[in-house]
Amino acid sequence: MSLFSRLFGGGGKAEAPASSAPPEGYKEFEIFVEPRSEGGQYRVCARIEKDVDGERRSHTMVRADTMASLDDARAMSLAKARQVIDEQGERLFA
Predict the structure, then answer these.
(1) Rounded to whole angstroms, how far apart are CA atoms 51 and 17?
(2) CATH architecture of residue range(s) 15-89
């Protein structure tokens, strides 16, 4: 990695791990907790899905929050996804 890349944040992309855990059901939605490894920490991410009018709809939530441990990132991803569902509901897919 070059000096400028390190100084200005360029370079490596976040790694999106394959989701091995089953989805968490919440208010007719399914939450797939998918924190991403990034720079030695884990970015809070989740995929929220629901069947709307017979069509599977999906929203990927990526937060600025990072956690030092994978377990903490999973817990925070689930909590933030539930919060987004509570605040926006089906408007997520509008």
Answers:
(1) 24
(2) 2-Layer Sandwich (3.30)
Residue pair 29/46 in contact (Cβ under 8 Å)? The answer is no
In contact, 52 and 93? CB cutoff 8 Å: yes
- pTM for this structure? 0.76
Q: Which two tokens stand for residue 69?
A: 């441990």
Residue 2 C-beta-side C-alpha neighbours within 13 Å = 4
Query: Does residue 25 sit in helix, strand or coil?
Result: strand
pLDDT, one tens digit per residue, over 34-62 is: 999 998 999 999 999 999 888 999 999 99
